[in-house]
Design a protein that fits this description.
Mean pLDDT: 93
Number of strands: 60
CATH class of the largest domain: Mainly Beta
CATH topology of the largest domain: Beta-galactosidase, Chain A, domain 5
CATH architecture of the largest domain: Distorted Sandwich
Low-confidence stretches: 1-41
Number of helices: 12
Length: 1067
């Protein structure tokens, strides 16, 4: 295919469209008008992987165009117009069924409906074509490159008023459409595009007429490109990024490549510029370019006199590159860009014609930083930076992949506030505006090629027919994003397998941009097995494994001679109640050289807002009638879809915090500044002294100046008033920002550490003589034993403790029960999934845990006297593979305190239980909750670093955590005591001997077990109080390593000891 339209031809410089020949406008029009869209051919464009595009302009850097310097300075352009309103839309089942002449300007589109773009028709509730979610599988049963016969297609029409101008071209810019798209203007076929995540530009100029013009788009939901856009996300269709009309002079700034070169040893720099024009040959002669560089917010030009003019030696008609001007300027000292200090410079490029008249101004922001790999470390500006990262998809629960700038800012603000410094754009290039904001806010970015062929893993990467698509997607991404300071690495895609197509991608990128390393998990990981991480260095400059265990990381760090750093592309799968043992990961990273962090999977849950029975909820795979789907595997983020943080995000913030405190001798504490470029002068350090979880004293420390990477000791003596105060002593350090930042207010908490000090025992006191206490009254009837002490009544039967009353108010409403299972979390096993790899949930089901109930047991009085009454109760829980025995000792004292000791015996066949403890059903009035333990949010044995050891006050209702798929939640760890009371201060206090885990909820586990959506569960009118020896840790086994052995329940003997004390209001 020759001339203007380019299909299978491919330009190795990343341009799918070769420079068009010089043609008269009449000749050009005749060529274009003779071409009609032919969809009924045996091998249509959308089923041919070698047809990438036609009519599409070459890829180039993103920058903002202005008509003058004044517009550039004001950031207000008359040259760029967003085309959002006025569109008409019709969905049809297949492109062949488009109405005849629909792309013509005189077509009657009364049956089309008005839409505002960007918008996805799959998010329109009035459309029958709905979202589809799959992780690996294709959403249809075909083989590459074929797509379904029923291929929903959107027809879009826009009437555009055009003022004729001989000075300006009109270029249509499609920032992102899914999946492939034809472009028409006034009935003419302008071009075609694949790759739904990069811009496609089309020159409309030859086809526009004065007055009204029609722009038409035909967007197909599926094409051969779908096979390499098989990301773990929703399948949508439509326009998901803005559409713009860009007006440019006939000779314009086609491309700008700014190469800021920084020397961290003396902060000197050099700015190299390569500026390509749209014209070449005689058309470009005499045009000149000047460059001005300003530190953002300042007016002083740092590159005064930096300019160049086109002469005959500076155009390249053979490559299609156009005339190029190369400029360079050395700078003695610059402010470096980093995540901690995102210093940006405004680069303004001005193009003038041979008469010196301004044709066009361009403005973009650049940053000076230096990236290298040296001695198993990724160095940014000379420092080995730890990657505290997240994977992020484009998602809004109401608009799908249509993301507003406000939502982008919200994401980046939350990331910065939670000590996240890096983003992987999984698994495609994000909008240019998102990268600009990463430049501004300070986020390191791995920019990822829009490439995932998960269903056909290791097949397409070795198929030469797909090589042009692989290479095009990488080169066009690099061309667009090459000027962003935030990008520290280029990624070749995700879960596609490794082959020569990726090797070619890596080779091109290295030749074009040697300043950034290449990331390629395909070279490191192999689906379903652990590949040799040392292999395929030609395909990746980073060792970037997916979901490695902590042990695998340590083994590699201590045994491998590979000179590349390890940065996990994905780890700690954050699905539901998840992210166990983050501390172990970070301990390994901070301990072993060559381990430099990684990216948690992933940022947010991707639920879609829906309603059922009048209740809002977040829908997932299968909720839209899909026959092929992967349930709630799309809900695996650190935040809910509305960006409310999960407890796992709070844990990540704490674990990766850049400031640490350690206890030294006496009253000395070491403060370590683990920031890379920032001292501690910008922080206020507040110190709280606590006894038994209550703050007794607060002071602000005068912190010495601690440079980045250094430590200092401070002396913090205990307040004299607290020195001998009985109880558990600790000290809490808080580090808060003094100044407001773009992403937070002044006072934002960056880090905190709580250090245990000592426990002071209360001095023994002589008790005043009193009358001899009255022993509890005992009544035995029909196998039940009733004990009365003071205003309390405790009833026991063959199941153990059955009822408790206090001041004639019912406290316990139902038997105390042995508790051995929890509502499964996603890491236990995904409810509703069949065929998943063996998980704990499958084992527990086979063992019959969810049906096991305690049997009646033996109850007897073993002691009675002045010290009180002691009862013994034995019972067991029988499962399919064994039985758990429990012997309980109840000791009721004359002052109505009930001391309870449970002794459990767990057989080998039942090791690794979900939990082990007991459960109480309490009076629904006991809504007020307080406890001394970790909090204020839920914590688990392997996710409790973010819980402060303090006295916390809350409510039972507030303990509910509405995970999108209902599951266990609200656990509390390291609990010393827990209290529940009603509005009249009547209640119960449970004191551990020494510690226990607990939860208090209105949602019984039985209801959570059988529910698949939040609207399917309703609060119970009771309070369900669980007291546990331990719950199984959370781990990350929904996609990754299971819970670590120290956080699992083994077999053998276990004890749970506590005291129940009934409480009345003080008088």
């Amino acid at each position: 295919m020759g001339g203007w339209f380019v299909g299978p031809r491919f330009d190795p410089h990343g341009r799918d469209f070769i420079q068009r020949p010089t043609l008269s406008r009449s000749r050009l029009n005749s060529l274009v008008r003779s071409r009609r869209l032919e969809t009924s051919v045996a091998n249509p464009h959308w089923e041919n992987p070698e047809t990438l595009a036609f009519g599409r302009l070459p890829a180039a850097a993103h920058f903002h165009r202005f008509a003058s310097k004044a517009q550039s300075k004001a950031s207000q352009s008359s040259r760029e117009t967003e085309l959002s309103d006025g569109w008409r839309f019709l969905r049809i089942p297949h492109p062949d069924q488009a109405p005849l002449g629909w792309e013509q300007s005189d077509f009657d589109d009364q049956y089309f409906k008005a839409v505002t773009l960007p918008a996805l028709w799959t998010m329109d509730p009035d459309e029958i074509d709905q979202p589809i979610y799959t992780n690996v599988r294709m959403p249809f049963r075909q083989e590459p490159p074929r797509v379904p016969d029923q291929n929903p297609t959107g027809l879009y029409r826009l009437t555009l008023n055009h003022q004729s101008s001989t000075r300006l071209q009109s270029v249509l810019v499609l920032e992102g459409v899914e999946n492939c798209c034809y472009v028409f203007c006034n009935g003419h076929t302008i071009g075609f595009n694949k790759d739904s995540r990069l811009p496609a530009e089309f020159d409309l100029t030859p086809f526009l007429v004065p007055g009204e013009n029609l722009i038409a788009l035909m967007i197909l939901r599926f094409s051969d490109a779908s096979y390499i856009e098989d990301q773990d996300q929703w399948w949508h269709a439509g326009v998901h990024r803005p559409i713009r009309l860009s007006r440019r002079p006939w000779v314009n700034l086609r491309d700008i490549h700014a190469k800021p070169i920084f020397d961290p040893s003396d902060q000197s720099a050099r700015l190299d510029l390569s500026i390509a024009l749209s014209a070449s040959g005689r058309d470009a002669l005499g045009h000149s370019v000047s460059a001005a560089l300003y530190l953002s917010g300042q007016d002083r030009n740092l590159t005064q006199g930096l300019a160049g003019q086109i002469d005959r030696a500076q155009y390249f008609p053979v490559t299609g590159k156009g005339a190029v001007i190369e400029l360079s300027k050395s700078l003695k000292k610059v402010d470096a860009w980093s995540s901690e200090h995102p210093n940006l410079y405004d680069l303004e490029i001005t193009l003038k014609d041979p008469l010196g008249r301004v044709l066009e101004c361009a403005r973009l922001k650049i940053g000076f930083r230096h990236i290298e790999i040296k001695d198993r470390q990724l160095l940014i500006n000379g420092q080995a930076v730890l990657i505290r990262g997240v994977n992020r998809h484009d998602h809004c629960d109401q608009t799908g992949k249509v993301i507003s700038e406000a939502l982008m800012r919200q994401d980046l603000t939350l990331m910065k506030q939670h000590n996240i410094n890096s983003v992987r754009t999984s698994h495609y290039p994000n909008q240019s505006r998102f990268l600009e904001l990463c430049d501004e806010y300070g986020l390191y970015v791995i920019d990822e090629t829009n490439l995932e062929a998960h269903h056909h893993y290791a097949q397409l990467g070795q198929d030469s027919h797909w090589a042009p698509a692989f290479l095009s997607r990488a080169t066009r991404m690099v061309e667009r994003d090459k000027n962003h300071a935030c990008i520290f690495s280029w990624s070749l895609g995700n879960e596609t397998g490794y082959g020569p197509n990726q090797v070619a991608m890596a080779a091109w990128i290295r030749a074009f941009d040697p300043s950034r390393p290449i990331h390629n998990e395909n070279a490191i990981c192999e689906q379903g097995v652990k590949r040799d991480w040392d292999a395929n260095a030609e395909g990746s400059d980073l060792v970037c494994p997916m979901y490695p265990s902590v042990a695998e990381l340590i083994e590699h760090a201590t045994t491998s001679q590979d000179p590349r750093p390890v940065i996990m592309c994905e780890f700690a799968h954050a699905m539901g109640n998840s992210c166990g043992n983050l501390q172990e990961y970070w301990d390994a990273i901070e301990t072993h050289k060559g381990l430099q962090g990684g990216f948690i999977w992933e940022w947010i849950d991707h639920g879609i807002l829906a309603a059922a029975d009048g209740q809002a909820y977040w829908a997932y795979g299968g909720d839209f009638g899909e026959t092929i789907h992967d349930l709630n595997f799309v809900c695996d983020g650190l935040c809910w879809p509305d960006r409310t943080p999960h407890s796992s995000l709070l844990e990540f913030k704490k674990v990766v915090q850049p400031i640490k405190v350690r206890k030294r001798r006496g009253d000395r504490f070491e403060i370590s500044n683990q920031q890379d470029f920032t001292d501690l002068a910008g922080l206020t350090v507040t110190c709280h002294y606590l006894v038994d979880g209550l703050i007794q004293n607060t002071r602000v420390l005068n912190l010495p100046k601690v440079r980045a990477g250094a430590s200092a000791e401070v002396v913090v003596a205990a307040p004299k008033s607290c020195t001998h105060q009985p109880g558990e002593h600790s000290i809490l350090f808080e580090f808060a920002l003094k100044q407001k930042q773009s992403w937070c207010d002044a006072g934002h908490l960056v880090a905190w550490d709580q250090i245990a000090l000592k426990t002071v025992q209360a001095a023994a006191k002589a008790r005043p003589r009193k009358d001899k206490p009255t022993p509890p009254d005992i009544q035995v009837q029909d196998g039940r034993i009733q004990l009365r002490a003071m205003d309390s009544v405790f009833c026991f039967d063959a199941f153990g403790l059955a009822d408790v009353c206090f001041k004639e108010a019912a406290i316990l409403q139902g038997n105390l029960m042995i508790n051995i299972w929890r509502a499964p979390i996603d890491n236990d096993g995904i409810k509703g999934w069949t065929g998943q790899q063996p998980k704990a949930l499958d084992r527990w089901r086979a063992q019959g845990l969810f049906d096991a109930e305690p049997e009646t047991g033996k109850l007897s009085i073993t002691e009675q006297g002045a010290h009180g009454v002691v009862l013994s109760h034995t019972t067991r829980v029988v499962t399919q593979v064994g039985q758990i025995r429990c012997k309980t000792r109840y000791h009721l004292t004359p002052d109505a305190a009930l001391h309870v000791s449970h002794r459990f015996q767990v057989p080998k066949a039942l090791e690794d239980l979900p939990r082990l403890g007991v459960r109480y059903r309490l009076n629904p009035d006991f809504e007020h909750l307080s406890w001394y333990g970790r909090g204020p949010h839920e914590t688990y044995v392997d996710r409790k670093q973010s819980g402060r050891l303090m006295v916390h006050e809350s409510t039972v209702g507030a303990q509910y955590v509405p995970y999108i798929l209902p599951q266990d939640h609200g656990n509390l760890t390291d609990v010393r005591w827990l209290g529940l009371h009603n509005d009249r201060q009547l209640g119960v206090i449970v004191t551990g001997h020494p510690l226990f885990e607990a939860s208090a909820s209105h949602y019984p586990k039985e209801a959570l077990l059988n529910a698949f959506h939040t609207y399917e569960v309703a609060p119970d009118h009771h309070v369900w109080l669980s007291l546990d020896v331990m719950q199984r840790g959370l781990g990350g086994a929904s996609c990754g390593p299971d819970t670590l052995p120290p956080y699992r329940l083994s077999s053998g003997a276990f004890s749970l000891d506590y005291t129940l004390a009934l409480q009345a209001p003080e008088r």
